[in-house]
Amino acid sequence: MIGQKNTIGYLKTTLKYFLLTIFLFLWALPIIWLIGKAFTPNSAILREGMRLFPSTWSMENIVNVLSSWPFLRWIRNSVIVSAGAMLITLIVSILAAYSFSRLQWKGRDVVFLLFLSSMFIPWEINAIPLYFVANALKLLNSHPGVFLPMASMPIGMFLLRQFLINIPQELEDAARIDGCKSLGVLFRILLPMSKPAVGAVVIWIFIFSWNEFFWSMISLQRSHMLTLPIGLKTIMGSQNIEYGMLFGSSLLALIPSLIVFLLLRKNIIKGISISGSIK
C-alpha cells in the first residue's frame, strides 16, 4: 500500500515537471528563435525561414547595428529614463504607501480610492494633457519630461501599501516604545521587511520605463534624445529594411531587462510567499 502511494506520488511529480518543462519551452521558444536569427547572416535569414538555429553563426548583425546606428546612445538614454523613473517612483511610493497603510488621518481611505481609480485610466488618454503640462514646464525633449509622468503612476504605491498593511502592528508598537518616530519605524523596521515588495516594484517600473514607447515618441523629437524603443522604430522605418539588423537590435534591447529580471526574480517569489504568510 505504501509502495503504491509512493508510485502515485512519483508519477504526479513527474507529470507536473513534464508539463512545466513544456510550458517553459513554449515561453522560451520566441526568445530562442530571436537569438538564432540575430546570429544568422542577413543574406540567409529569409532562406532559412523558421529554423531555430543558423547553419552558420555570425556576429554580422550585431556589428552592423552598433556601427550604423547610435545604439549605445539609445541605451544610455533608456538607462537614464529608467533610473529616474525607478528612483522617483520608489521615493514617492514608499512614503505614500506608509501613509496610506500605517498612519491614521482624516479622509485617508477616500484619497486612496481616488489614487486607486486612476489606475483604470489608460496611459494613452493622459498624453494630450501631459503634453501641454510638459510644454508649459519646458520639459519636452528632456529625460525628466519622459520619466516624471511614469513616476506619477500609483501602481508602486498600491503594491507597497498592500504589503505594508499586512505587517503585524505589534512590531511598530514595539519600535515606538523604544523611541522610534514615524520615519524611524518606516526605515528601520518596515522597509527592511519590505525588500521583496520593493524588488517587485523596481522590476515592474524598470520594464515599463525601458519598453515605454507611446509617450516617449510624443515628447522626444530630437535625435540625440531618443530612447531605445524609439530607436528600434527608426531602424524598422528606414528605407531599406535589413532583417538582420532588426533581429540584432531586438536581442541587444532585450538583454538589459532580462538581466534585471534574473537578478531580482527571487524578490518577487519571496514577496508573494511572505505576503501570503503574514497575518
Question: Which SSEs are present, and which pair or pack?
Answer:
Elements: H1 2-38, H2 45-48, H3 60-68, H4 71-102, H5 108-117, H6 127-136, H7 143-151, H8 155-164, H9 169-177, H10 182-193, H11 195-211, H12 214-219, H13 228-236, H14 243-277
Account of the 3D structure:
With 279 residues, the protein is mainly α. The protein has two domains: 2-48; 68-277, MetI-like fold (Orthogonal Bundle). It contains 14 helices and no strands. The longest helix is centred in the N-terminal third of the chain and has 37 residues, at 2-38. It is flat. Mean pLDDT is 82; it is low at 274-279.
Quick recap:
The protein is an all-alpha fold and 279 residues long.
| Uncertain ranges | 274-279
Order of helices and strands: HHHHHHHHHHHHHH
Structural class: mainly alpha
Kindly state the percentage of residues in helix.
Answer: over 70%
CATH architecture of the largest domain: Orthogonal Bundle
Strand content: under 5%
> What is the residue-mean pLDDT, rounded to a whole number?
82
Over the alpha carbons, how many angstroms does the gyration radius reach? Answer: 24 Å
Oligomer: single chain
**CATH topology (level 3) name of the largest domain:** MetI-like fold
Number of helices: 14
Please give the number of β-strands: 0
The named CATH superfamily of the largest domain: MetI-like
Report the biggest beta sheet as strand number plus sense, adding barrel if it closes.
none
End-to-end CA span: 39 Å
Tell me the number of structural domains. 2
Overall outline: flat
Q: What's the CATH class label of the largest domain? A: Mainly Alpha
